[in-house]
Amino acid sequence: MSNDEFRAAMSRLTAGVVLVTAHEPELSDDGPRGDDVGMTATAFMSVSLDPPLVLVGLRNGSRMDDLLAEQPLWGVSVLSESQRHIAGRFAMKGRISDRLLFEDIAYTRGEVCGSPLVGGALAVLECRTEERVEAGDHTLVIGRVLNVGLPSGGGSPLTYFRGRYRQLG
């Protein structure tokens, strides 16, 4: 089996799309202020109801993987189909700085995690890392959900299938 064959097989699994966010703390009291970091993910799932746990897969060596190795608090925004542009923006390779990516997106700061949580998302979660598991070229981050919000009462989820963002129905 080749990598392309494996990728093609996995592309036939429909996935929900989320924006994972974290706030990189300031380096020092008089140093540069911290930055918000965001990453589009389709490898996200609920793990447990009691305690409430979720899992996200991060590419090893990515900025988010490096940050969550140091920063235990992070947020998740479950994107709606009308937020495809946000998913695409944070999934770009060779993208501009995260500060500019957040510039014109409506968000609030999580009360617990301090991370940006996207306005109009279907749901938002604030998490604290419980465990990190190395798995091939990815790290599986298991987080305890500390707080949830349902900022949008309606709409359909943004999904990913066969390498493209899709709508249900």
Fold and architecture overview:
This protein is of the alpha+beta class. 17% of the residues lie in helices and 41% in strands. It has helices at 3-10, 63-70, 84-91, 98-102, and strands spanning 15-16, 18-23, 36-41, 44-48, 53-59, 73-78, 107-109, 116-118, 123-135, 138-149, 159-161, 164-166. The strands form three sheets. Strands 3-2-6-9-10-5-4 form a seven-stranded antiparallel sheet. A three-stranded antiparallel sheet has the order 1-11-12, with no helix packed on it. The chain has a two-stranded antiparallel ribbon with strand order 7-8. The mean pLDDT is 89.
Short description:
The protein contains four helices and twelve strands. The protein has 169 residues and is of the alpha+beta class.
